[in-house]
Amino acid sequence: MARAPLPALLSLVLTGVPAVLPNAAAAAAYDGQPRRETALFSVKSANNAAAQAFTVAGTRLSRVSVYLGSGAATGTVTAQVRRVRADAGSVVASKTVNLAALGGAGAGWVEFPVSASVTAGATYYLFVQATTAESRPVAWYGTKQSVPGSLTSWNYDKAYWGGWHAETTARPAFHVNPTGSERCGETEPCYVPASALAARTAGLLTNGVATEAVLPSFAVGASYVDGSNVLRLPSGRWRYLPEGATASAVVEADDAGAVAQIEESRGWLAAGQVPGTTAAQRDATQRALLSMRALLKPNGAFAAGWSPPWEYSWPRDGAFAAAAFAATGHDDEAYRILGYDARTQRADGTWEARTKLDGSGPPDARPWQLDGNGWVPWATWQWYQAAPPDERDERLRTLYPMVRKAADYAARSLGPNGLPPASPDYWELGTATTNIGTAAPLLAGLNASADLAARLGMSGDAERWAEAARRLSAGIADVFAPLGYPRTADGRHGLDSAVAFMAPPFNSAPPDLGGALDSAYRALLLPNGGVSPGNDPDFSWGPYAWTASTSFFALAWSGTGEQARAARVLDWVLSKRNGLGELPESVNGAGLPSSVAPLGWTDSLVVLTALALEGSPQPTPPMPAGTARAGTAQAGAARAGTAAGGAVVRTG
């Protein structure tokens, strides 16, 4: 075996795929074996190479593949088919690939298209050698276990062996003329750049009931069939989740079951709206809508993403999805989410931070979050605005007990200064004083609830919640506005992207909000071009930009007349879609998608922003008459009772 630093390559073996595969059945022709659990041979530069003897039953070569691991990001890898192992003049086919074109450092199966005539049953040699100026290794992976029917493999290491050395047990992973499941991307991954593994998931397959994540290692070289969640593989075959199945299947292109699923998805899209002012926006919103649909379960639970820590339903995420579904003409999906919210609401009118997707309750003891009492009524109001008018009042009456319990709890929670108590918000971290990420959604929810009550003739509810909204609006104007709408009422925890929740389509923007949005965006902007959720000195988000937080600003500016700025921010978010076109939860310091993709919340925000940019913004719940706003004489009078340290005494 070569002395090259092969252990350094072991970390490149991909996770999420089997490292040890069953032995290939013995056959007259030895034209491949898939085991690749070990870095076998260094193949880098002039002093290292490897070769594997093989035979084929046919007379044509069209493709060869090898399993490579490369620490080098640049250079080339050449695969040759030779008649004589050590004779470069005996080459019958040769192909070179560029490591940078493969995505840089990584690991996986590399396919080399070739074209050559060969003699059936004759012995040939698959020769592999890499050239790079980098010091990092490039290795051909394989196995040290017995492979029945195998032929000799050869290691060329001039410094160690003095030339070619025959290996009696080690066998590199390779295929000659791979077909079916031997093609990369089906049961084994194509070469996956290490950078792609920053994300846990890359896409989704669904049949309307079950959902399956596409792992990053199986997304390379793949693409969705347009308008569907059917995946076109590098081999040309399709992967999809058949009706009634819980695991995906690989089928031939144009398989009847897959075609039926494609046609159904396209029909669903056509029944609604795919917004966007550019082709890129429409492409992104189409994919976002399909991904949101894949995350929605038949019972109305909306999963945040499809990796175990995200496979729960948050009221917040579901509210945004319901609003986006409703605004694009997908009434059933929106109403289904709201129905799930009604069934999972706690007796006191609040919600758990998140629930299991079967609706049976929370998965753990994570503290509940008060902002849900704003988001769910706001989403209900948004659904009502877009719903078919003939039956919407009757359908609203079904949801109204949920709205009443939520709004009553929100109204009762307000303190003497008009603000709600401290509660975890979308950061899912507690704060010592009220945060804007709770106060602003509650204001939107109270305004929405009051308007819904009025529409159903519930005048007592409407006035009670309108008065609570007036108190909350005054409290925000008194405490948060003078400080630029920071994260917390005490002003000690920096700025927060939730300042955007004070803008449409959540709340009518106060006159001083524009400057606060500008200041927060500048303060939270990261070198990678995205936005951090906040800059609390007591908590760091690190170099990761959140696509949701970045999208908050795009949506806020699209609703406050700053269309050009909104479009620029949206363009950045769309530029971070992965190879399948999915929107990730976060973007790391290197500018690469990370965490999960897709994230349903970001999908919803992108859809809503695209609608606003094309001139179809969501409406904003109306403010009750007499509401105090920041930057107005009315708010100034209300602030006359403000005591030192930010406490507010309400009079009258």
How far is the first residue's CA from the last residue's CA? 87 Å
How many helices? 14
Strand fraction:
15-25%
Low-confidence stretches: 1-11, 13-27, 633-652
- Described by its quaternary structure, the protein is single chain
Mean pLDDT: 92
Q: Helix- and strand-based class?
A: alpha+beta
Question: Strand tally, please?
Answer: 23
Helix content: 25-40%
How would a crystallographer describe the biggest sheet? 8 strands, antiparallel
What's the overall geometry? elongated
Rg, alpha carbons: 29 Å
Q: Key terms for this structure?
A:
disordered C terminus; alpha+beta; 14 helices; eight-stranded antiparallel beta sheet; six-stranded antiparallel beta sheet; single chain; disordered N terminus
Q: Would you mind describing this structure in some detail?
A:
By secondary structure, the protein is of the alpha+beta class. It contains 14 helices and 23 strands. Strands 1, 2, 4, 7, 9, 12, 13 and 14 form an eight-stranded antiparallel beta sheet that branches. The protein has a six-stranded antiparallel beta sheet with strand order 6-5-8-3-10-11. Mean pLDDT is 92; it is low at 1-11, 13-27 and 633-652.
